[in-house]
Design a protein that fits this description.
169 residues, 5-stranded antiparallel β-sheet
Length: 169
C-alpha cells in the first residue's frame, strides 16, 4: 500500500467530527489517518516518533504546505469504524490492535514507533478491514488529547458527550 496522493472517499460507520489545527508544511488528504505531533498540530499518520495514536480520519483536505503551524484547521471524524487498507491481516485478528503503516494503511505488526491506528472490528479481506478509531479524551495529555491549547474557560457544558466551552481570555 502507499501513502495517499489524493483525496479518498472513506467507508465509515458512525463517528463524531472534531477540529484540529494543522501542522505547518503538511498536506492532509480527505480520508487520511491523522495524528497529533509533539507540538500539538495535526499531520498525516506515519510510523514516526513523537506522534499520538491516530485521532481519526480527515473529513476534508487540508493544505498547509505553505503555512505555519495552526494557520488552518481541519475537521476529523473520530469515534468511528472505517474501512482501511491493510498490509496482511486475517479474520483471527479481529479485536487486535492495528498499527499505522502510513496515512492510508494499517497492519497488526508493530512498526518501529508503534503508532496505534485502532482495533480491527471486521475482516473484509487479507488487505482490507474495518477498524474502530476511538477519540482520545484525556485533556491532561495534549498529544492526542481533546485540548490542544491553553485557555481560561468561563463556562462548560456537556450535551450527549460533546463538550462546549466559553473562552474567558
Amino acid at each position: 500500500m502507499t501513502v495517499l496522493a489524493a483525496d479518498k472517499a472513506s467507508k465509515t460507520k458512525t463517528g463524531r467530527i472534531y477540529s484540529y489545527p494543522v501542522d505547518g508544511g503538511s498536506l492532509i488528504f480527505k480520508g487520511a489517518l491523522v495524528v497529533v505531533n509533539a507540538a500539538g498540530f495535526l499531520e498525516p499518520a506515519a510510523d514516526a516518533a513523537a506522534k499520538s495514536s491516530v485521532v481519526g480520519i480527515a473529513f476534508e483536505q487540508a493544505d498547509n504546505v505553505s503555512g505555519s503551524d495552526g494557520d488552518i484547521s481541519v475537521r476529523v471524524i473520530a469515534d468511528v469504524r472505517v474501512v482501511m487498507a491493510a498490509t496482511a491481516i486475517t479474520a483471527a485478528m479481529i479485536g487486535d490492535t492495528m498499527h499505522v503503516v502510513d496515512d492510508a494503511t494499517v497492519d497488526d505488526a508493530v512498526g518501529t514507533n508503534g503508532v496505534v491506528a485502532g482495533t480491527l472490528v471486521e475482516f473484509l479481506s487479507a488487505t482490507e478491514g474495518m477498524i474502530y478509531i476511538p477519540h482520545p479524551v484525556s485533556p491532561a495529555a495534549p498529544v492526542g488529547g481533546n485540548f490542544l491549547f491553553a485557555t481560561t474557560v468561563t463556562a462548560l457544558t456537556v450535551v450527549d458527550g460533546v463538550v462546549t466551552f466559553v473562552d474567558g481570555t
